Amino acid sequence: MSTEEKPAAAAPRSLAEALRERDDASLAALLRSRPDLITPVPTDLTQLATRAGTRASVVRALERLDRFALQTAQALAVASDPASYEELLGLLAGDDGDPAVSAALPHALGALREQALVWGGDDRLRLVRTARELLAPSPQHPSPTGLGPTVREATAGMSPGRIQEIVATAGLPSTHDAVSAVASLTDLFNDPERMSALLDEAPSESVEVLERLVWGPPYGQVTADPAARLRWLLDRGLLLPTAPGTVVLPREVALRLRAGRAHRRPEPLPPPVEAAGTHRPQVVDATAAGQAYTALATVEELLRDWHEGGPAVLRSGGLSVRDLKRTAVALDVTEPVAAFWVELAYAAGLLASDGEADERYAATPAYDEWRERPAAERWARLATAWLAATRTPGLVGGRDAKDHTLSALGPGLDRSAAPEVRHRVLALLAALPEGAAPSAGSVLARLAWERPPRDGRSGGRGAAEPAGGGDADDPRSRLARWVLSEAEMLGVTGRGALSAHGRALIGAPAPRRPEAEPEGPGDKLPVHHRPAPPPAPLSPGEQATAAAAAARLLAPLLPQPLDHVLLQADLTAVAPGPLQRPLADVLGVLADVESKGGATVYRFTPGSVRRALDTGRTAADLHAFLAAHSRTPVPQPLAYLIDDVARRHGHLRVGAASAYVRCDDDAVLDEILADRRAAGLGLRRLAPTVLAATADPAGLLEGLRAMGFAPAAESAEGDVLITRADARRTPPRTPPEPVPEGPPVPDDTLLTAAVRAIRAGDLASTAPRGPAAGDRAGGGGELPRTTAAETLATLQAAVLTGEALWIGHVNAEGAASRRVIAPVRVEGGFVTAYDHTADEVRTYPLHRITGVAELADEDG
């Protein structure tokens, strides 16, 4: 029969039949949008439809709808089953019609069909049963539309006599049975003219009652003896009793009062993202680059503080509140900002716990490698880690479900939606004209439209609720606020606008130029257009490429490291910019940072000079270093300070006895014994030049330094121990793995294989076995039999065409079976295939296959 002669396909009777009518591209789109359906791969389309209708899968799908698509699903839940396209349009656009709704409805309905939440033609639209149960109204769970049950549902338990009384009072002719009476009352409420005439007779107090219930919730409480305004409504069925003391506004009445609308405010279009101000792109990029450099300096300062072992790890994991406060003071930032930098270093794999008995945080070996990279590449690593991390620093200090405080680096900070929200916020910024900074409220409103906050039942906000600027308690709104502030601190944005390197980081297209330059940074620039769909989150390979592109754009904007400082007579050195790595490392040991900013001021103190001498340098080395890297002569006070500290350095020697002090000058030991501050060290003289102590060597060193001496530690052999600031490193550690929000989105290769397997399995389950050349089985359930050459040729052809086949197989025990397989490879005397009977990939020896047979088409 030709294509033209075939009769028109009958309307699908189930979701499985509707899926069977889809092409491969449509099935792949379904599996991509709902990846939980592919884990594991369904055996056929019937199993796929069953899985698509489970409660967990439907809830997940509803949670990923935008607001108008969700409103469309909610309208279908209160419409007829099945409903026509015209009925659905009337529920959304109202009696007067809304052009925006009419234009947007095909797209929303297409999205519901693509996700298999709605099936059937425009004349018979059906919402998946589970979705209808989730969204339909009930006394326990009012509908998000605010509508109540229908007249038929509300009168189900009412006596026939009472129904006839209502019909008579409403001015309708009496009927012989309750069913026809309910139908007559329903027709009255659905007739605009007769309904208007009935409401015109209503007392004003009764109309006020209806107005309070019309937009929901539709339930109200009444006494045993209702007031006259309620009695008038009850007698005419405009309110119907559902339980003792409870009445409900029937759905048909509410829709008439709403002019046919299921929602108070349909939202067919996303709210625009408005620009609160604009700046020149060069200013944005320069500001963001300055923040990026500050981010690098802050992370280095944090880990330099923890070189010799950072704070202890709490027994429950994480950083104590006291240690977080100390870190904030050291970085000169607030505690929430300090938590962000700590978590960023952890996400980038630069910081971890050392895993020892006295577990502490310290830099990882990856930190040393990171420090040697160019500044732009170091920033790209931090920014990439931030984009992908599910750990959320903004939660630090809050409470978990068990009322435990959430600590930095501790458990409970993962939020699987964080990467998606970060990417989406940056994509919204990328859709604005270049240099435009959005208002936070418009960004939150847009996100709330794209993914409505959960209402605890269907995953979406009720349509009767105002959209506003985002619910402050909504987790996604909180995440979005944190993204905006974190992106500014990290240097992805500058003055609130997305920078060029930030745009490259997410793989966004070239920026759109504004039509006119604004007068100043305070000008308003509303964006009324609907931007193009944002780029999807990048794969790991694409993200690496984007990070490299971002680093290339950022590199020219970062200041070049300097090889000199300016020494001053007040024992300070001024670094007019970032310093080269060797110079910064040595100067960081030789002096203390006094102030930071565009220029860093270092101060030389006896303690800092002693610290440099402890690393094995001599006074001559320090003089030579300063002379080589100073653009000004070495001031005399600084030279005297170095010589004075060096003269006294190592004069005392501390070793392990528990501890001891030895010195060639016994007068110095007499001075120590006479000092009252030495009482806690437990010192006693063993020899004219040796003192023993009950304190450990580290405590003894610290105590003597506090008394103004400059002791040096020595080994058991009597050699001076040289200490280095970077001695403490953790074993190699991998960065924390992000916690996914659900099953990963399958790639194209997996989708193609899955669709092929589902099609083959569905064909195997629905089609009869067709005869094959040489098949001598004789029909029935006997094994297909072909020659070895025919078997090999047919299997090789099936590998190329992707077709499924029947095979007869005899196992090692001699048991025979018929199986449906989709061959993948034939080589070495074996065939590897997806076995639809066993639902797995198997390998069969060719000599155990009795024969092959093709699957017949359904029309046979």
TrEMBL record:
Compositionally biased tracts (Gly residues): 459-470
Protein name: DNA-binding protein
Renumbered residue ranges of the record's region Disordered: 451-476, 508-545, 762-781
Molecular functions (GO terms): DNA binding
UniProt cross-references to InterPro entries, sorted A to Z: WYL_dom, XPB/Ssl2_N
Basic and acidic residues: compositionally biased ranges: 512-526
UniProt keyword list: DNA-binding
Domain named Helicase XPB/Ssl2 N-terminal: residues: 565-687
Chain ranges of the WYL domain: 790-852
